[in-house]
Amino acid sequence: MWKPTNQPTTPGRPAEPERPTMPTSSAPAMMANEPAAAPRPATTPTTTTADQATIGKSLVIKGEVTGSESLYIDGRVEGSINLAGNRVTIGRNGVVAANINAREIVVLGKVRGNLTASDRVDIRSDGSLTGDVVAARISIEDGAYFKGGIDIRKGGQPTQPGQQKPNGEDKAVPAPEPAAIGARA
After folding, report:
1. pLDDT for position 21
2. Per-residue model confidence (pLDDT) at position 51
3. Which domain holds residue 136?
4. DSSP strand E in the chain: where?
5. Is residue 97 part of a domain?
6. Spans of the chain below 70 pLDDT
7. Based on CB atoms within 10 Å of each CB, which residue in 140, 152, 179, 185 is the most buried?
8. Which residues fall within 8 angstroms of residue 114, CB to CB, at 6 or more apart?
9. What is the per-residue pLDDT for 16?
10. Max Cα–Cα distance, the chain, nearest Å
């Protein structure tokens, strides 16, 4: 039979070109009503998905991992991971034997090493962590395995090994304060 040349080969394609033309014609009306709300939801998921690298189940990396994007690890990593301003997620199949430095660290798999996070560390119920944690916030779900020390620091506070007590405790409360309270009462 005769087939016109101006039609696409797949039937689902004609609807897609029409969609961009419709928002373009109605975009001035939307921008007049909501100029800031419409563009932000469209750009946020795109940047989150595009800025995350993945180490798959079958990959083994030995050495130093650095970069400027978030990382999802489902394979094996040995060495060190330094992604200071980003998120590192160790997936359920992930096995990491490394010190990790990131903004946010989520543990779903197994980690052996020290974690330093400028924001938070999250150990999920299936996660396992053997090592020390330095972070502003920490969350350990029921069922998670954790063996190590925790040092809670406010964001932006530098980590200096000389300031930490040998037993990991910080006794910053001065002794005269309770006496002053008792004298007032």
Report:
1. 44
2. 80
3. 51-155
4. 52-55, 60-66, 70-73, 76-90, 95-107, 110-112, 115-123, 128-130, 133-135, 137-140, 145-147, 150-152
5. yes
6. 1-50, 155-185
7. 140
8. 99, 100, 131, 132, 133, 134, 148
9. 43
10. 102
Residue in 72, 77, 75 with CA at minimum distance from that of residue 61:
77
User: What CA–CA distances, in Å, run from 64 to 8, 43, 77, 81, 118?
Assistant: 49, 31, 9, 6, 19
Give the span between the Cα atoms of 106 and 86, in whole angstroms.
11
Structural domain contains residue 7: no
Task: State residue 154's pLDDT score.
Answer: 81
| Token pair recorded at residue 57 | 């189940």
How high is the pLDDT of residue 165? 43
Please tell me the distance from the alpha carbon of residue 121 to that of residue 51, in angstroms, as a whole number: 20
* Structure tokens, 154: 């406010």
Q: Which of 91, 79, 108 is nearest to 52 (CA)?
A: 91
Q: For the chain, what is the domain count?
A: 1
Residues paired with residue 95 on neighbouring β-strands, in sequence order: 76, 110
Q: What is the DSSP letter of 38?
A: T
- Using CA atoms, how far apart are residues 96 and 106, in angstroms rounded to an integer? 12
